[in-house]
């Protein structure tokens, strides 16, 4: 009897051991672990290709870094690293905030002089004449939507340049319209002065970052400006100022004096009927009329917010109606 019990025990153990070693059915197999990005390692050849692509980035391309860090204070200074001619360069940045324009961004305060006004931020090479710069970046607000503003800018630039217009992504501001002007119209060669314009959409119009630089500075200034624009971000405009009718008249008079140094003496002599006055005015636009000593009548159509202005001319007895000229200006530049 004992032998039978022992035999049964051994047989049961063999059966259980066999079950443990049996293959698992498909329904019993555990699900495969999901593959994450950490599990995929880039091959050396991929690394090499990425490095080569980065080295071939041109001055007209906006680098992905540095971008403005949220929370920086107005006037805060810090170091950043950019790539110039394939090599890392440490630059000294200052964070700025202009609520009238509706932007914050960083700029290289060692290499550029900042000219700040409520309607405009301008960063001029410290090698340039501040009154007549060649290499500078200008940032402004425009009340028009991005597409309309870009079309207007393109129309003006296309008079002298062949243009490349494309949608572009900035690290700080997101999608924008980028307009490159680096070829003479119909010439097939590069002009002495290059321009790159970024038109950035916003809920209240757009922001425009406009870089100007000489051809010999394309790899230097052009690339530095691209880094600076990449840090720009749009903020709500607060405490915005608008031109009054009186400011507009005074600014146009000052502008006319600057373009014709003899004009002020003619006004004082009172030999000719010369005057400036408001022709019309509403919430968006002021029209200032200037009656010249020559008898011609110029009208200055001024955007009350941005100060952007175009000019028409009418000569009684010669013209049937006023005609738009090529003359443009920003009235804010002449407001005391």
Question: Quick recap of the structure?
Answer:
This protein is of the alpha+beta class and 336 residues long.
How is this structure best described in words?
The longest helix is centred in the first third of the chain and has 20 residues, at 2-21. Helices cover 24% and strands 37% of the residues. Strands 4-5-6-10-9-8-7 form a 7-stranded antiparallel sheet, sandwiched between helices. A 5-stranded antiparallel sheet has the order 12-13-14-15-16, covered by helices on one side. The chain contains 6 helices and 16 strands. The chain has helices at 2-21, 44-55, 146-157, 218-230, 245-259, 263-269, and strands at residues 77-84, 87-98, 103-108, 112-117, 120-125, 136-142, 161-170, 174-184, 193-202, 205-214, 233-234, 275-281, 285-291, 297-303, 308-314, 323-330. With 336 residues, the protein is an alpha+beta fold.
List keywords for this structure.
disordered N terminus; 6 helices; five-stranded antiparallel beta sheet; alpha+beta
Q: Radius of gyration, Cα only, in angstroms?
A: 33 Å
Q: In total, how many beta strands?
A: 16
Major sheet attributes: 7 strands, antiparallel
Average pLDDT = 83
Low-confidence stretches: 1-62
Overall geometric form: globular
Number of helices: 6
Question: How large is the share of residues in beta strands?
Answer: 35-45%
Give the CA-CA distance, first to last residue.
120 Å
SSE string, helix = H, strand = E?
HHEEEEEEHEEEEHEHHEEEEE
What is the helix content?
10-25%
